[in-house]
Every structure is written in structure tokens, then in C-alpha cells.
Amino acid sequence: MATKGEKTKQFILEIAAPLYNEKGISGVSIDDIVEASKLTKGCIYGHFQGKDDLSEQVIEYSLNHLSEKITAAVLKENTAKEKIGAFMDFYKNPINTFIDGGCPLFNTAVEADDNFPSIKQKVAARFAAGQEALSGILQEGIDSGELSSKLNPKRFAFKMVAAIEGGIVICRTIDSAKPMYDLVQDLKDELQNYSL
Length: 196
Hints:
CATH topology: Tetracycline Repressor, domain 2
Order of helices and strands: HHHHHHHHH
Number of domains: 1
Structural class: mainly alpha
Oligomer: single chain
Largest sheet: none
Radius of gyration: 19 Å
CATH architecture: Orthogonal Bundle
CATH superfamily: Tetracycline Repressor, domain 2
Strand content: under 5%
């Protein structure tokens, strides 16, 4: 059972995650978190060594939360195509994301690229792990005879993630989810071309 301190720290992370996702690492201040959480600065600093530590832990929390949600959606399915479809469907509505502000992986990647090297490494590791997992699912589909060996799992996984992440940004910018629905359907149709 979590202690009161652990519960408070978890609460801070949960409150801070959408703020970081919407405003970015540089855009969030401790005062923003104080206002949203109704906690004191002293309480927040009692759980984190400073803004850098808080930022690292909030990003880690957001990325873990994202991974858990995607994994849960994918593991509900049985076949490789169903699992890949569940991954795509997870991102189908980029206007209403599970953490306000869009995809935390993409948002963090853009900001961390030039400004936060340690966070950039964490994001790069998440992208690599996600690519490996998706590629593995596609390879399982090939190995089981569900998908043709003409499919290159690594290339398709990369194309799919790059298209979806780019689609999120564009759809959020134009405030319309429709292009993403079309993109997801096009990706599913392309994968269907490899069905046996």
C-alpha cells in the first residue's frame, strides 16, 4: 500500500503530465503546478529535487502511461493485423488524446531534441522500443503465415509511426481528426495487401 508521500508524489505527476504535454518542458513553471494541484511549492519540492528532476519524472510518467495504454490496447487482440490495427486505432482521434495536448512522445521529442539531452535519450529509447515491438508483431504475422514475407516489418513499422505522429501534428493544427481517420484506413489497406 502506498504511503501518503507516495500518493502525493503520484498526484503531482498526474496533475503535471497534461501541463507538460500542452506547454512543454520549458513552458511549465512550478507556479503552474502549484495552481493546478493546490499544493504548496514546499510540498512539491519535498518530492522532487528541483524543476529538472520534476521534469524528468513527469516525462517518464507520461511515457510509461502512454506505453501502458498502447500495450493494453494491442494485447486485447489475437492476430498480428488486429494488434497493428489496435495500435493505429489508438491514435485515430488526435484531437481528443488520452493526455491533453497530443502525443507525449512526439511533443517531448520535438522539445528535447535541442534542449534536453537526457530526456532526448529517454524518448529515443522509447521510439526504438516501440519500433522493435511493432516490427516484432509484424514478423510474428509473417512467421505464422498471416502476412507475406514480402512485407519488411522494420520499414513498415517506421513508416506507420512516422505517418501517424506527423498526422497527429497536422490534425491538431488544423483542428480536424478526419485526415487521421483516412490515414489510418490507408495504412490498414496497405497492410492488407500483404495478407495471405
